[in-house]
């Protein structure tokens, strides 16, 4: 089975997970945002971005499996792949982790799809144990509560709803995101726009400027401080907080360090 498999990952975290499970040699396609691990992915063909997949190139690469995510990929991309002729149509593996503990189910999901490949089960078990260990160490009640605004974009400012993976990661260290809203299972409401005149901005204690998907830097601190004049502002590692799969191990450690 393994010799015939050709995996396309359209999600950075899933590309990293495939490699962590020992299947790097099966990867034939990735997005331009799939940059880790660098020494592995440089040999893998790029097929555009997570939102603008080059479907013609992807089809030429003849994947047997395409890994996607509800938040990161477009529904019309998935539908277009599903419309390929039956003899070219890959198995589409849809993922949607919404909390750090969902990483355990995600690992099981991917491992089950590729359970015939030698070493996958044992690699999955090791990764599962590492994440479970970090989850046990990252407990909400061990940290002081904070109201935070986690910014992922500017012009317009955009943040995260409380039922997203990012917000639930932050909640593990008692950092509750504002606004206090859920965004639903999918769609734009999961990443609300901040106008700048919302009353709740006065309650924000920390503004977190993520290093991705928008590359916030020191030049943006002043504008963020003007948005929330009562808050401290810091730049944070977006990969550590928003990437799931194997990155959650270091990500949970990173959060504990921020909240210490």
Present the secondary structure layout.
Layout lengths: L6 E3 L2 H9 L6 E4 L7 H4 L3 E2 L8 H6 L4 E5 L5 H8 L8 E5 L6 H12 L6 H18 L8 E6 L5 E2 L6 H7 L3 E3 L15 E2 L11 E5 L10 H7 L4 E5 L1 H5 L4 H13 L1
Parallel strand pairs: 1-2, 1-4, 2-3, 4-5, 6-8, 6-10, 10-11
Antiparallel strand pairs: 7-9
Helix pairs in contact: 5-6, 6-10
Structural account:
The chain is of the alpha/beta class and 260 residues long. The chain has 2 domains: 135 residues, Nitrogenase molybdenum iron protein domain (Rossmann fold), CATH 3.40.50; 120 residues, Rossmann fold. Helices cover 34% and strands 16% of the residues. The strands form 3 sheets. Strands 3-2-1-4-5 form a 5-stranded parallel sheet, sandwiched between helices. The chain has a 4-stranded parallel sheet with strand order 8-6-10-11, sandwiched between helices. A two-stranded antiparallel sheet has the order 7-9. Helix 8 links the parallel strand 10 and strand 11. Helix 5 runs antiparallel to helix 6 and helix 6 packs parallel to helix 10. The longest helix has 18 residues. It is globular, with a radius of gyration of 19 Å. It starts with 6 loop residues before the first strand and ends with a helix. 38% of the residues are buried. The model has no long low-confidence stretch (mean pLDDT 97).
